Amino acid sequence: MQNSQLDSIEVKQFIRELIAEIAETSAEKIKDTTPFYEELGMDSVMALEVLSSLEKKYTIRIDEEKMVEMNTIDNTYEVIKPLLSVSA
């Protein structure tokens, strides 16, 4: 794997750990399809923290309008995937 490529599993794991930290829960309890707002009690301030952390970690710019789509690990990954060089 080249340095410019990121493994999708690693990216999803980072998202999982980030969400767990922000939602103050265990990462093991968060599945790829767990709804952040309904099941984890996240709010818009927490969502901004997720967006900001992802931008900082991966040196990317995420349109704030995409936050609505970032409601599960899978959906968050799909939003940022085009901004990354990700291997399958």
From TrEMBL:
<dbReference type="InterPro" id="IPR009081">
    <property type="entry name" value="PP-bd_ACP"/>
</dbReference>
<dbReference type="InterPro" id="IPR006162">
    <property type="entry name" value="Ppantetheine_attach_site"/>
</dbReference>
<protein>
    <recommendedName>
        <fullName>Carrier domain-containing protein</fullName>
    </recommendedName>
</protein>
<keyword id="KW-0597">Phosphoprotein</keyword>
<dbReference type="InterPro" id="IPR036736">
    <property type="entry name" value="ACP-like_sf"/>
</dbReference>
<keyword id="KW-0596">Phosphopantetheine</keyword>
<feature type="domain" description="Carrier">
    <location>
        <begin position="9"/>
        <end position="84"/>
    </location>
</feature>
<dbReference type="Pfam" id="PF00550">
    <property type="entry name" value="PP-binding"/>
</dbReference>
